[in-house]
Structure formats: structure tokens, C-alpha cells
Design goal:
alpha/beta
Length: 273
């Protein structure tokens, strides 16, 4: 009895001395919003039928074949902020109107800020292929990086593990692991040129081109069409080329594609067809 009382007192002391959660208020808002959205999702479709514009059936018939919407893309970002704590604060202030599903700190700490099935606000005005509402079909991952730094080994190890779980859970194709710069060329440059896209592709997260030494590019090859086939928005071909370089050549550069870059683009086009 004496030992049990001692353990109880020790536990109470430890609990009372533990620091308060600085995100308690935003966590409360999170739970409240999930509860409100869940109410909307649980309403019967018949509740919203307009009696004055259609013939109402005598009985509502609900289908038994449905499920949650699953994300089909993963969009990788760098935070472009000074610290992980600054990013967490940004994502918990309502006035910023930005968020992500995951945040990976410099030391490898992983914050899962939003359920994968909810729609985060990370992509903004963007396009990939024929999709213009990227937020509704993707998972956003933010990596703590000011935009110029090399990504840490701890971050990349956590990222690879996270991507493996996401890919398995949601069945996301390898080609659908892309960057913010890819879907918003000219507007975004993340993740920066230090990001190891080849390492990810070697693990099944993204596509790569391999050795292009002996590749012969046809005389009628059209780089603009090739960029479009991959998924880039070619409404501004200049920025599309820059985004392509940032991802696959790992440089920030302007100007026309070099012959070597055309080889890379030609090989990649074949992989996306």
C-alpha cells in the first residue's frame, strides 16, 4: 500500500511539473472543426433535396457502395521559414490560411498535423496535368528548410519511411510524388535544388531518367509537348522549363534547354506516357 501511494504521488508530481502544451488552443479548434465537418458528412443526402425543383421519391435510397476519398498525389515542400516552431505556429494561426498534413523538423521530428483524408491548404494556385484543385487530391509534406539549406540525413530518413507508409496505405503511383515547384512553376521554388529527387525515385517515389549517354533525340522532338505529357503547366513555357530543371537537373537556371537536358526530357516523356 505504501509503495502504491508513493508511485501515485510521484506520478502526480511529474504530471504537475510537465510543461503545458503550447498548442492546446489550436488543438481544441482542430477537434471542433473535425466535429463540425463530421456532422456535415453524416447528413443524409435526402436532407438537401429541393422539393420545388424535382419530384421527391416516397423513400430515400442510399447506396451501400462508398468510402472515403483517397489522396492520389504527394506534394513535397520546403517551409522557407527559420525554424520548425515558426512553421508550426504558421500552420496553427487561422489568419494564415495555410497548412500541411505533415511537417518534418531538422532533427527528424515528425508532426502529423492533419488526417490524410482531410483537405489541407498547401498547394495553392497550382496545376498538374488536368488537375487544378491539387489540395483535394493530395497529401502535403513540409520539410523544415529556409529554402537554401541542404536537407538533413535525419529529415530524409524520416521522409523515406513516411512516403513508404503513405504509398502503401493509399496506393499512390510512383509518378505522383512531386514538388510544389512542379505544380506551381514561376510561383514556387520548393523543394530547393538540394532536394535529392533521385534518391526518392530509387526508392519508388517519383520517376527518374537513368543514363542518357547513348540517347538519340528525334529531330521532330517537341520539348513543350514533352513537358505537358509529364504534367507541367505549359501556359508559361519559360517557368515550366525552370521547374523541370529544378527537379530533374538540380539547378536554378534560365534559358533554352541544352541538348543534354533535351535527352533527359525525352527519356522522361517515355516514362510518363
Amino acid at each position: 500500500m505504501k509503495n502504491a501511494l508513493l508511485l501515485l504521488i510521484t506520478g502526480w508530481i511529474l504530471f504537475s511539473c510537465s510543461p503545458a502544451n503550447p498548442y492546446a488552443a489550436s488543438n481544441k479548434k482542430y477537434k471542433a472543426q473535425v466535429k463540425e465537418l463530421s456532422k456535415i458528412m453524416s447528413r443524409l443526402p435526402a436532407d438537401s433535396m429541393l422539393a420545388d425543383s424535382m419530384k421527391i421519391p416516397s423513400h430515400w435510397v442510399g447506396t451501400s457502395n462508398f468510402g472515403l476519398r483517397k489522396p492520389g498525389y504527394v506534394i513535397i515542400h520546403h517551409t522557407a521559414q527559420k525554424s520548425c516552431e515558426q512553421t508550426l505556429k504558421t500552420f496553427t494561426l487561422e489568419r494564415t490560411a495555410v497548412s500541411a498534413h505533415y511537417v518534418i523538423c531538422e532533427d527528424g521530428t515528425l508532426h502529423h498535423m492533419l488526417n490524410d483524408y482531410w483537405r489541407a491548404w498547401h498547394a495553392g494556385n497550382s496545376k498538374w496535368g488536368g488537375i487544378t484543385d491539387i489540395n483535394s487530391s493530395s497529401i502535403g509534406i513540409e520539410i523544415d528548410n529556409d529554402g537554401t539549406e541542404v536537407f538533413t540525413e535525419a529529415q530524409l530518413n524520416v521522409l523515406l519511411g513516411l512516403l513508404a507508409k503513405i504509398k502503401k496505405t493509399h496506393g499512390i503511383p510512383a509518378a505522383n510524388f512531386i514538388g510544389h515547384s512542379d505544380i506551381a512553376p514561376g510561383r514556387k521554388v520548393d523543394p530547393n535544388v538540394n532536394f535529392p529527387w533521385k534518391t526518392l525515385a530509387d526508392s519508388g517515389f517519383g520517376l527518374w531518367y537513368g543514363d542518357t549517354t547513348n540517347v538519340a533525340v528525334p529531330a521532330d522532338f517537341n520539348p513543350v509537348i514533352a513537358l505537358r505529357i509529364i504534367g507541367y503547366n505549359i501556359s508559361n513555357n519559360t517557368t515550366a522549363v525552370e521547374a523541370f530543371r529544378r527537379h530533374f537537373i538540380a539547378v536554378d537556371a534560365k534559358g533554352a534547354l541544352t541538348e543534354a537536358e533535351k535527352k533527359v526530357l525525352f527519356v522522361l516523356m517515355g516514362k510518363y506516357l
